[in-house]
Amino acid sequence: MRTLKFKKLTLISDLQKKARQLEFSDRYNLILAEGKNSVGKSSVVKNLFWCFGCEPRFDDKWNSLNCKAIIEFEVGDKKYWLARDDNRFFLSDDGVKYKSFVGLSGEFSKKISEIVNFNALLPVRNKDEVVIPPPAFYFLPFYIDQKQSWSNAWESFDKLGQFSDWKKPIIQYHSGMIKKNYFDLTENIYEKKREKSAVKNKIEKYETAISIVSDFIPNIETTVNLEEFDEIEEELKYKMFDLHNLQELVFEEFAELRADKAHVQSQLVIANEALSELEKDYEFAEETDDEIECPTCGVIHDNTLVNRFSLLKDKEQAGQVAKRLEASLKKLERSVIKKEEELRDIRNQIEELNEKYYRKEEDENKITFQNILDSVAVHSVTQKVNSRKSIKFEQLYSLEAGEKALGKDRNSASKESKKIVKEKFIELFPSYISKLKAFGVNTSNIKSPESYTKVAKSGGAAESTRAMLAYYVTFYNLISIYSEEVLSPLVIDTPNQHEQAAKHYESIVSLVMNNTPENSQIFLCGMDSKKLSQMKGKGKVHLLEKEHALLEASEYEGLSEKYGSIFE
User: Fold this and answer.
1) How many Å apart are CA 485 and CA 176, to the nearest integer?
2) Where is 292: in which H helix or E strand?
3) Helical ranges in 436-496 per DSSP H
4) Using CA atoms, how far apart are residues 290 and 417, in angstroms rounded to an integer?
């Protein structure tokens, strides 16, 4: 399978006038500290992912450097570079002039997903829509971060709460249980959902129209229909019939206009509420300099000028929507008034005929032309609306049946692959547990890549750490064997958690070297140790010696001159 290889990482701090460039081996890369732990090992590997729009957990000291980063990488035989400065991204595709992006826009996420062939889609909260998720969802299984991953898998990055219930489809996709055709069917299912929503809205409008007809003309007791109406004497027949057709047409248009008006009014209420909330959000953002936590999904949002500008832009867009709806409502109100006038004019003509042919002293119970036409018009309009509503109900039933059929096709398409992947997991995971001598881990109830929550709970603290490594290495091999995506480097930050005994640290290194795909790239962070000698001999070592001094003043001028124009 195709692999992604990190070739070179460049870090530049204009604030500190310092920089650093690191080149990497295609196989093993060790980011090591000698004697001191806080020398920037984790910052190196975190920046590999930060460049791609992920949000690893940097400490405050690193954040204060306000660094720019450039990663040069290869996918197969194609070369790329990607640069990031705060919320701006710059991507060069195989030597082609680079493109710039602001934020994790759909366009940026789509481009990265195309490069790494990541075809997963996730549903947007409160919408019948699936979208390409940000690159963090691609890199999740490839990064074991120092703080979270050893106790909680799939927690390597912050700001993943924008999607709900994302872990199951993402785990299944990465492991090869499901592939692109699964998400193609998912997209079709959501298209059916959107169509269903549109049909339901139309049915509601028809029901509103019927209600308006009933309210506008109360119960009419006459049973005169078109056949009886044809029996009226010849002289009146054509006049009344023309009036009947005209009144029916105008009455139908009137009912639809009233229904449209009611619909727009409800939309305007929603738009105004959204505008009011955005105004409050913007005012709140202006009044605070702190990061803001979303009360819905728990995501922490930066409160920078760019973010506030985005909020202001959303507010302006909401205001424009409200203005458009207000304009539509006024237009509809004028149209309703005009139709009412047309309807009154027709009724006046009918009344004139009624007065002409029926004298006041005649039987008060005699059916008037007005009653006749009202009865026929109401009956005809109601019949037409009900007929259209019936058609929409048929469409709704058809869409629901289609959605269920797509769901069955989706399940059947992945049934066999799920079985194969789970069988492979059951084969690999216990064997890796055995190689790591984590005998306190009960593997009998960990039978799937989806059982990740049980991994950290098995065995003691040191054993559960080794069990988590076994899980990630197992998953890495599943990706290599079954997934359609590009295989990213596996980045392991400080596997010697909980002071592993020397023999266990040896087995950790052995597992990584002997049980990862031969064409994969491995990054390992940790303290320098003799146990790493074999890996050192086959890879590249970056030994960081100065405490809190990953960046160097001596490298700033040259690197800034070479890469600075990217960000201008």
Assistant:
1) 9
2) strand 292-293
3) 452-455, 461-482
4) 47
Burial class (CB in 10 A: 0-12, 13-18, 19+), 172: buried
- Which domains, and CATH codes, for the chain? 4-177+414-567 (3.40.50.300)
**% of the chain exceeding 90 in pLDDT:** 46
Yes or no: say if 277 and 286 are a contact pair by the CB < 8 Å rule.
no
Structure token pair of residue 96: 């082609």
Amino acid found at 118? F
Amino acid identity for residue 257 in this structure: L
How buried is 470 (Cβ within 10 angstroms: 0-12 exposed, 13-18 middle, 19+ buried)?
A: buried
Tell me the mean pLDDT in the region 193-218: 79
State the average pLDDT for the chain. 84
- Are 542 and 524 in contact, with CB atoms under 8 Å apart? no
**Are 152 and 455 a contacting pair, CB within 8 Å?**
no
Q: How high is the pLDDT of residue 265?
A: 85
The H or E element that residue 527 is part of is: strand 522-527
Tens of pLDDT along 229-265?
454 444 455 676 677 778 778 877 887 888 888 888 8
> What pLDDT is attached to residue 500?
64
CA 149 – CA 456 distance, rounded (Å): 10
- Lowest pLDDT segment from 17-31, 310-324, 432-446, 552-566: 310-324
The residue behind tokens 């020398």 is 39
Which stretch of DSSP H or E encloses residue 341? helix 305-357
Cβ contacts of residue 199 below 8 Å, gap of 6+?
Answer: 392, 395, 396, 399
Q: Nearest CA to 56 among 118, 140, 134, 120?
A: 140
**pLDDT by residue (tens digit) across 369-397?**
566 556 666 666 777 788 888 888 888 88
Q: 291 pLDDT exceeds 60? A: no
The residues, any chain, with a CB within 8 Å of residue 66's CB and separated by 6 or more, are 13, 14, 15, 86
- Tell which residue, 76, 79, 78, 72, has the closest CA to residue 3: 76
Element (H, E) at 533: helix 533-537
Q: What's the CA gap between 369 and 209, in Å, rounded?
A: 24
**CA-to-CA dists, residue 542 to 33, 34, 532, angstroms:** 9, 11, 13
Q: Which residue has the tokens 């009036």?
A: 243
> pLDDT tens digits, residue range 116-155?
999 999 999 888 899 999 999 999 999 999 988 898 999 9
Q: What does DSSP assign to residue 551? A: S
Amino acid at 88: R
**Residue 423 structure tokens:** 């069988």
Cβ(242)–Cβ(376) under 8 Å?
Answer: no
- 290 neighbors 376 (Cβ within 8 angstroms): no
Q: How many CB atoms lie within 10 A of CB 295?
A: 6
**What backbone phi and psi angles, to 5 degrees, belong to 104?**
-80, 60
Q: How would you list the strands of the sheet with 78-85, edge to edge? A: 18-23, 4-13, 68-75, 78-85, 88-93, 99-102
| Contact between residue 155 and residue 149 where contact means Cβ atoms under 8 Å apart | yes
Q: What digits encode the pLDDT tens for the residues 414-447?
A: 999 999 999 999 999 999 999 999 888 989 989 9
Do 165 and 470 touch, CB atoms closer than 8 A?
no
